[in-house]
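Supplementary Note 3. Input sequence used for the single-chain structure prediction.
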Amino acid sequence: LMHFLFVAIGGVIIGILSGFILVWLRSSIAFRMTQPETTIIPISLLTPFAVYFMAETWHTSGILAVVATGIVHNWESSKLKLTSTNVQLTQTTVWQTFSNILNSIVFLILGISLPTVFHEIARIGLNVTIQLIGLASLIYLTMFIVRFIWARYEDNKSSEHFFGPRHAPQHNFYSRVFAISGVHGTVTLAMAFSLPTHIGHQPFPYREQLIIVATAVILISMIISAIALPLMLPAQVTSYTPDELNQTRNDMVDFATLQMRRIISDHDQREIVTAQLQSQKGWHQITDRETIKNNYQSLLTDTQNFISDYLHSDQVTTHYQVEVINAYQKIITRFDANHQRLSLGRMRLLKRITHRLAKSLKHTTWHLGHRQFTKKQKQLARQKWLTQHADKQQQWADMKSGLLALNDEVINAVDHYLDDVLANNIVNNHTENQHIDFVRRDLDRYFTLIRRDYSKNTPVIASTVYIEAFQAEYNFIQDQVKQGKIPATMASLLYTEINQAQTLQLQQAEQLEGLGDQ
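The predicted structure, written as discrete structure tokens, is reproduced below.
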């Protein structure tokens, strides 16, 4: 008995002392380092192993030491509060993952041990088995009573947060739910399995019976909670459907996208921010692809007609020569022709490739016929030709500058046109606006080809821009809740999504800034 007390109490003491030391160490790191999560998370993962082996080295209970350390670690979160939020969020995610894995392993071990338990039941006989099951039932009943009494009569703010005020009508109900909920006995089963098979060269007494009792307690707690909770708890009522959630999310993203497009003046930055915000919708939500395809074709045709009308408007004809306008009209017409070619299938694509190969062969043959083999010979021939046609060179330069300037004006006009289409859809509660983004991206890709802007330097977007965009999403959700259009549960879920998206975006921006500094 004295040895048992030494092992048990010694393990608890070592666990408590180790817990306070490690909590102090991790708290100091959290308050003093710029990126403490890179150090704290590995320490957190290694803590249970270090405490276990430390306790076992002193010949005390490693399991009780780890449990005691875990209890002490609750003090760390209350001390940090809202400081080192990145550490706490990352740590919570990591430990939730490990907790799910370890819980699964516990039940896997339980399932593997059941044949051994059944074998022992057959060996010890029915009468002893009934006694052990009765003992397990008594243990479960005792745990239920202790948990219920604690939940019912505990008087502090933490218990009121979970069970409500002590004199509230629902307090007893919540206490009963708490007492029944959960699977009990997993730590006990782990301790039972850790008992040695032999002690003093003799079989450890009642080891199999202890395993049977611990297994029975787990099974009883699982069966009772699975039967009782569905009868006690009210039926789950979903205040919104997945389609309603997707619709609200789409409206939120479109609203923020439109707000930012009106603020950002630079076209390239505007398109990058738009693409980032639109990615919140998730392309897996696109279900009616045929409708989106039809809407895309219709909007693309309307946009091309708008461009054509814009090219012949007084705003353009008074500032640009007719040759420039006609040349740009031909370029835009090729955009429609290219889309038609892509929709005609593989034979059309093969014909296009064959045409390009024939053109390249003709070009090569011409250079060979004029004895222009090296790069230097080609450059000399080009300079000679340009000298002889200096007047045409100037005309082409003027044509090029006119086309580029007109292209910039068309880009701004198309942006405003598509923004107006999006704004009109938002006013008319049209949720499915993916086709607008598709048209915008395809046209922008073609405008980039016209500019011959092949630069791979992506414009840097300030973090404040994304913060303002996510704030617009927050404002949209708040307004929807105030108007009673969406329930609070949906708003809470969308708030979480916005917060996670903002955190991820700021982390990526911080990483890019770090790479730029390097």
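DSSP finds 20 helices and two strands in the chain. Residues 240-267+280-285+460-518 form one domain.
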